[in-house]
Write a structure and sequence with these properties.
heterodimer; A: Rossmann fold; Rossmann fold; 6-stranded parallel beta sheet; 12 strands; about 40% helix; B: alpha+beta; 2 domains; two-stranded antiparallel sheet; 2 strands; about 15% strand
């Protein structure tokens, strides 16, 4: 059994492990306690953006060779990605990594971003929510704003590439620029389209069906369409701050800073403080489990300062944690990738007890770190957690509590799940797997694949 | 085996070199979905051949690191989403290597489910915990840099190719060849190593990871070289 917290700590926990100003028995709600995080003073240096060869030690030479081969037949071809923003959000983050790697493979890759102002993005934000099942009435004004801005963008952009990929609903009407030639157009839908608002879907569907293919993140998110639909899982970058291997000394510093005891089991959920992530349910499961096994609980989430609902949820979580000094409620700023990485790495078990989920990439992050994961069978999680093989799927607080007890008392099985989980991520959810899917798709659509 | 191995020179040239390939697959989401076992049966009977391939041959490759659990997606779903352990065991006992065509494999799965539903009609329309989503594979063949012109090069390459390449030549190959054999064994037979070829075909692919299968192939080939 090689789980981190069960190994002796690199150094004995110093008396200063618990902040000196903390009276005995008071809760360790670090959201309130940390004024100036010491670990911020000297974080590990951020390495330069990884290049393809940097992934070879992780995926192996044959895998890298396959990427190079697949890219060869696309030399001279060009691909354009279009989305609605260049910074912030998962799609922009994904394109910031994929586009340079495609270019490194000598596939010409362009990335264009829609121009629009508040009225356009208000409409598309409403579209986004409605496509995920929210109530919505499509007004004539909203329809006109959507089409007008896409028309403006069409007149500004050129579409000379061989493959054009439109991301999410915002740029959908750009498909009207499609020329009757060999060009291929693809719609990449990153959102859960399993239950779209019917009125809005009736409006958008004709745009979607003018593409050559659509891509979804989960089988469950797809719609019946007249065009081929492909499954592209979201990915994690194993060399990013959130996932790269950290120095043991840094891990210990993070534990010391937060007062986490590495000699005892650590159960962690990393999620923003949001009702759908069920942090209170996680506390309930921890309490049920703790009747039988010793453990600490870490709930690490995003900042809630600008989100009234998030702030209310955080208050609820703090109330539920009450005076339990083994519960660590950590409200971390968005720039905490290294700390999140460290918290996942030092965990004995990682939980994702969501009530509703998109794909849930925090699960892949934990699996990549070889952690046994207990997660709800919602959204894209069952794609990542195969029950009893790469983790444990649960459907209730009680089920979650039982699996915490079970895995803490069966460390061999926990380690085995973690190993399987890491392999599963390596095969399916790494950036290199995503890159391969893009190359395969372009080959197939352009008719240059050897089949 | 020993007599065969001792008579074989590791550097004797092959009539035809062995070119190692691999295959990559792009997953397509198909229109069929099943929420009950009756719907699963209907979809298995009507889906594209590429879907049967995906949920049997291809899932072995996708989950090559697993040595426990059910060996195909239909069996896994019958167990996990329908809680029908008996059906899951029967579906899991189907060895894809006994099939040289997808249509006979499709027929076999359909027959097992049909029999089970006939004997347990009460489970026919019971809703599963989650639907079965049919997918299919678009396959692209990828050549590798490995070529074997003799047994020594063959053994060396076997250790260095990806597990996807092992899957392509050792498991998927029978659909291409329409033979209950594999590319490695066919080549070994051409080299006059009939017994070694047979031993490869006896490897149990369901009780080991694909890496474990590769290790066994390498051991058998190295024994033949010794």
């Amino acid at each position: 059994m090689a789980l981190d917290n069960q190994q002796p700590a690199a150094e004995p926990n110093p008396p200063g492990n618990v902040p000196a100003d903390r009276p005995a028995g008071t809760p360790l709600l670090l959201v309130e306690r940390r004024k100036s995080p010491r670990i911020k003073e000297a974080p590990p240096a951020t390495p330069p953006p990884p290049q393809l060869e940097d992934y070879q030690p992780l995926i192996g030479k044959p895998e890298l060779d396959e990427l190079l081969y697949l890219a060869q037949s696309l030399r001279g071809k060009a691909i354009k990605m279009v989305n609605s923003t260049s910074v912030g959000g998962g799609v922009a983050e994904m394109l910031q990594r994929v586009v340079p790697l495609l270019q490194e493979l000598e596939v010409t890759a362009h990335w264009d971003v829609l121009n629009g102002d508040t009225e356009f993005f208000e409409v598309t934000k409403a579209f986004h929510n409605a496509l995920q099942g929210g109530a919505y009435h499509l007004t004539r004004t909203a329809r006109e704003i959507f089409l007008r801005y896409d028309e403006q963008n069409r007149s500004r952009m050129s579409f000379d590439e061989d493959v054009i990929v439109l991301h999410d609903p915002q740029p959908l009407a750009l498909i009207q620029s499609r020329k009757p030639n060999h060009q291929r157009w693809v719609w990449r839908c990153h959102i859960d389209l399993s239950n779209p608002n019917p009125e809005l879907w009736d409006f958008l569907r004709p745009f979607v069906e003018r593409h050559d293919a659509a891509i979804f993140s989960s089988q469950a998110f797809a719609q019946r369409l007249s065009i081929p639909q492909y499954l592209f899982y979201p990915f994690i970058d194993p060399l990013s701050d959130k996932n790269r291997q950290l120095d043991p000394a840094y891990l210990q510093r993070v534990c010391d800073e937060f007062g986490i005891d590495r000699s005892r089991p650590i159960v962690t959920q990393v999620s923003r403080f949001d009702r759908w992530k069920d942090p209170v349910g996680v506390i309930q499961a921890y309490r049920l489990a703790k009747r039988y096994v010793d453990c600490q609980l870490v709930l690490a989430g995003g900042s809630a300062t600008d989100d009234p609902q998030g702030a209310a949820m955080l208050a609820e979580v703090k109330a539920a944690a009450a005076d339990d000094s083994d519960i660590f409620v950590l409200d971390l700023p968005p720039s905490s990738a290294l700390e999140i990485n460290a918290l996942q790495t030092i965990s004995t078990i990682v939980i994702q007890k969501s009530l509703k989920e998109g794909f849930g990439l925090t699960v892949s992050e934990a699996l990549w770190k070889g952690k046994p994961v207990i997660a709800s069978a919602v959204g894209g999680i069952p794609n990542q957690v195969i029950h009893k093989i790469t983790g444990m799927l649960v459907h209730s607080v009680e089920g979650c509590a039982y699996q915490i007890r079970f895995l803490l008392t069966h460390p061999g099985l926990a380690e085995h799940l973690g190993k399987n989980g890491r392999e599963h991520v390596k095969e399916n959810f790494l950036i290199t797997a995503s890159l391969k899917r893009w190359l395969l798709l372009c080959q197939i659509l352009l008719g240059v694949a050897r089949q | 085996m020993m007599a065969e191995a001792q008579s074989h020179s590791p550097v004797r040239g092959a009539r035809t070199p062995f070119y190692f390939n691999s295959a990559e697959h792009l997953l397509r989401i198909e229109p069929q979905r099943a929420a009950t076992l009756a719907e699963l049966l209907e979809a298995i009977q009507s889906c594209r051949a590429e879907s049967i391939f995906q949920h049997t041959f291809r899932t072995l490759q996708e989950h090559h690191f697993i040595q426990e659990g059910y060996s195909n997606d239909f069996a896994h779903w019958a167990f996990f989403a329908c809680n029908e352990n008996g059906l899951a065991e029967r579906l899991s006992s189907v060895d894809v290597r006994e099939f040289t065509s997808i249509e006979t494999l499709r027929h076999c799965f359909a027959e097992i489910i049909d029999d089970y539903l006939a004997s347990s009609p009460v489970v026919r329309d019971r809703r599963a915990l989650e639907p079965f989503y049919f997918c299919a594979s678009d396959t692209v063949v990828v050549p590798t840099t490995f070529v074997a012109r003799n047994m020594k090069e063959f053994a060396e390459a076997l250790e260095r190719i990806s597990v996807h390449s092992v899957h392509y030549h050792f498991i998927e190959a029978r659909l291409r060849l329409s033979l209950r054999s594999n590319d490695f064994s066919v080549w070994l037979e051409q080299m006059g190593l009939k017994r070694t070829a047979q031993l490869l075909n006896q490897i149990d692919i369901y009780t080991s990871t694909l890496q474990g299968v590769r290790n066994r192939i390498v051991r058998i080939v190295e024994t033949a070289l010794a």
